[in-house]
Hints:
It contains 6 helices and 8 strands. By secondary structure, the chain is an alpha+beta fold. α5 (about 125-140) links the parallel β5 and β6.
Amino acid sequence: MAASGQDRSLRDRLARRQVYIRGKDGKDYVLRPIQPSDAPSLIRGYDAMSERGKWFRMLHAVPHLTDDMAREFCAPDPQTECCVVIDGRDDLADEILGGARVAGLGQGKAAEFSVSLRPEARGLGLARQALETVIDVAREAGNTEVWGLIARQNTAMLKLAERVGFQNKRDLDDISLVRATIAL
Ligand SMILES: CC(C)(COP(=O)(O)OP(=O)(O)OC[C@H]1O[C@@H](n2cnc3c(N)ncnc32)[C@H](O)[C@@H]1OP(=O)(O)O)[C@@H](O)C(=O)NCCC(=O)NCCS
């Protein structure tokens, strides 16, 4: 008997474009796995971010994503990584709005998260839902924890992490960073 929607794994439903998230604008957005053809839009989305936003995302000075970086970013290893993106609508219908990623999937492991949204799509609750979704993917993969490093000045991300249920602690190796962890 064919598996019904709910019997399918979250990753399977994401791959079938069956996962929608609702923005505070009342609109539904498709959340799906990143794919190689997203590379040009990923570069445009990164270029739309402020230098501060780029620093907060990369924790290094990366003024621009090269084609190679974008290609690599758009081809995660399905065994150990999951990266979901949000399809744009209306003026940004040809773009991806951003998304969330976990790396280090596996039974009993701790996976590292990252998340970023184009400035035009922030404040709609989309980053929160994308991050919650990859946390659920990690939970489904048997991970015991999800963690990430956040710049101490990154108020938006520190608040988002708290909102999702992370514990934020000063990083002992680098006081300019905060280590956010959530037990699964
Ligand atoms: C951090 C980031 C992803 C948040 O995106 P966003 O779309 O604004 O987030 P959401 O709308 O999903 O916000 C969810 C929660 O985060 C908090 N939040 C988000 N932006 C905030 C801000 N500027 N100030 C205070 N709290 C904020 C709120 O608690 C919000 O909860 P709410 O639903 O009650 O409003 C976005 O600002 C970004 O891409 N920044 C640049 C890249 C970056 O810093 N990535 C993180 C690297 S670790």
